[in-house]
Each structure stands twice: as structure tokens, then as C-alpha cells.
Amino acid sequence: MTPHNASGPSRWSDLDRPPLNATALRRGLLHEGGLWTSVDVVQRTGSTNSDLVARAGSGEAGEGAVLVAEEQTAGRGRLDRRWTAPPRSGLFFSVLLRPAGVPLERWGWLPLLTGVAVATGLSRAAGVDTALKWPNDLLVTVGREERKAGGILAERAGEDGVVVGVGLNVTLRADELPVPQAGSLALADAVSTDRDTLLRSVLRSLETWYDRWRSAGGDPVTSTLQETYAAGCATLGRQVRAELPGDRALVGEAVAIDGDGRLVIATAEGTREAVGAGDIVHLRPA
């Protein structure tokens, strides 16, 4: 029974949002020869990305380190946007990767690879169709509306490392959303919101995709990453506005993901431009 207080039902009881089981996560994810080498769960931190970058810099973390927080107080998205959510309401984690043997110019695929891995893992464990908005947003359908339920942020960690962070809304209710356009797995009618199960599925999927990509020397074609990302990318085929550095905007149809992971936009003037960085707005049909 959900506990009550003097003002009515509590917003969420501990039973509704149980803590992650670090011991079970380690047992399910750490194995000899595997990618993941450590799994740490902290109750509260500013940013798992910042913490793991610092650990990597001090030599405390090696490749395959996973840092998970039950609550982030200073979680960041792209362009230093804040990412906040109630404790234990989502998955907030970062991983340290050191893609030795992969040319530096192909490291830009890591956020896109992570998006593919998260979408694949959620499809299996939550039964939710997660679409990818270039370059790093995770979209779910709530009712008939496309909503952002998560995001990915990659940061360099020294000369040979990358920390990739994922924030994903799992059990947020409508009245807890940071903005009305946000979503969560629960609101998208996920068959499971068990965070232990979801995290294991996502990290196993990430290990599979990372191994495949690294074995191909980071080649997005040989690894099938480029093809798979394009197939799950909700941005392609849409009219978009790219808000680019230098206060420049580009409007047109998103037609492809090129070999460098950039979004190719075809304008009404007949030109094509590959965008490597910028904010993408999906324009509604006229």
C-alpha cells in the first residue's frame, strides 16, 4: 500500500522507486574479457561525467569503468544545459572508453553509437521504440507525440579516453517533467521500468556495439553503425532548422548521416551542407 501523509498520498514511495542493486549489477555485467571493469553506484553527485573524467585523470578509473548516480544535481546536456530529475526516477550514468586503434577522427561516432546501443537495449528490456534525434537525444512516443526522454553527452578524458554520459527518464510522471515536451519510459507505456534490468540491457548492448565498432577500426560502414543509426534516426526525412555556431541558422531537409557522423541538410536553394555541431529543431509540417 502506498503510504499517506497529512496532505494526502506521498508523491512516490520507496517501493515505487527502489534503489539500484550495485551487487547484482556487478554480478551481471563484470566478467573476464568483457568491456566493463567496475560498476560504482553513488547516491548523489553533481555530474557523473565530471566525476568520471576526474577519476580518469587521476588514474583511479580505467577503460570500462561505469559510474551511476541515483540523483544528479548538476547533470549537463549539450551546450551546458541542465538535466535534473527526482532521485531514483531515471538512469544517470557515465562510462569511460579508451578506443585504442580507432583513428581520432572517428571518435565523433561514439555519441551516435551510444544512442544506437541505448535504443537497442530499451527495445529489448522495456518494449519501447526509442528514436534518435541527431546528434544525441533519445525520443519516445507519448500518446501520439514525440517527446525527449533522454540525452547523451561525450567528453574527452585525457589524450586517449572519452567519457560518455547518459541521462534517461524512467518513471517520471507528467507533473514531474521539467518541461511539457519531455517524456519518460513510464509515460511511453514501457512494459518494464525496473532500472536494474534496463541498465544491464543498455550496458550489454553498448558493449556489443562498441566491440563491433572498435574491431572495425571505427569504420561506420563495416561495423554497420552508420546504417543502423540512420534507420533509427527520427531527424532524417524531416524539415529541420540547424542553429549553428556564430548565430547562423540553416533550414532544409535532413537527408543523410555522412561517414563522419554529420547531418547532411539539403536546402531549398539546392545546396547540401554537412553539419557537425549545432542545435537541431524538428520543424512541424506546414
TrEMBL record:
Alphabetically ordered keywords of this record: ATP-binding, Biotin, Ligase, Nucleotide-binding
Protein name as annotated: biotin--[biotin carboxyl-carrier protein] ligase
BPL/LPL catalytic domain: residues covered: 29-214
Enzyme class: ligase
InterPro entries: aa-tRNA-synth_II/BPL/LPL, Biotin_CoA_COase_ligase, BPL_C, BPL_LPL_catalytic, Transcriptional_repressor_C
GO molecular function annotation: ATP binding; biotin--[biotin carboxyl-carrier protein] ligase activity
A GO-annotated cellular component: cytoplasm
Pfam families: BPL_C (PF02237), BPL_LplA_LipB (PF03099)
Species of origin: Streptomyces bauhiniae
NCBIfam families the UniProt entry points to: birA_ligase (TIGR00121)
PROSITE patterns recorded: BPL_LPL_CATALYTIC (PS51733)
Domain of life: Bacteria
SUPFAM superfamilies: C-terminal domain of transcriptional repressors, Class II aaRS and biotin synthetases
EC numbers on record: 6.3.4.15
Keyword Protease included in the entry's annotation: no
